[in-house]
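Task 17 of the worksheet. Students: predict the tertiary structure of the chain below and write it out as C-alpha cells. Keep your answer in the requested format; marks are given for formatting as well as content.
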Amino acid sequence: MSYERCKICGKYDFIDRHKCSPKWEATIPEYYGDEWVEVYAFDEESAAENMAERYNSNGDYSLMNGNEITVLVKKPGGEEVKTFICSAEPDIIYHATEQKVSKENAKNNM
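Model answer:
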C-alpha cells in the first residue's frame, strides 16, 4: 500500500483504495472575483471549509484572528449557489515527554 497525494483531488491517502470526494466549484468573491475554483469535498459545507483553509493559509491567517469570509459553493456547471460564512480557530495541542531522573534528583525536585 502506498500512502501518497492523489493527483486529482490532492488528498493524502492510501492510493490503491482511495476514492476522491465529489467535485464542487467554490469562490471567495472578495479574493477570487468571478473565478470559480474546483474543490473536492463530501458536501457543500466541507467545500466551503476547504476554500476557507486555502484562503487562510495564503497569508496572515486572518481567519484565526476573529475575521470571517464569505464562500460561495455550487455543483460544477450548476446555477444554484449556496453561501457560507467561514471562520477558523487555532487548535492547541499539548505534548508531554517523560524525563528520566535519578531518585536523588527526584527527591530534590519535590
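Marker's comment: Residues 103 and 109 are 10 Å apart (CA to CA). The mean pLDDT is 88.
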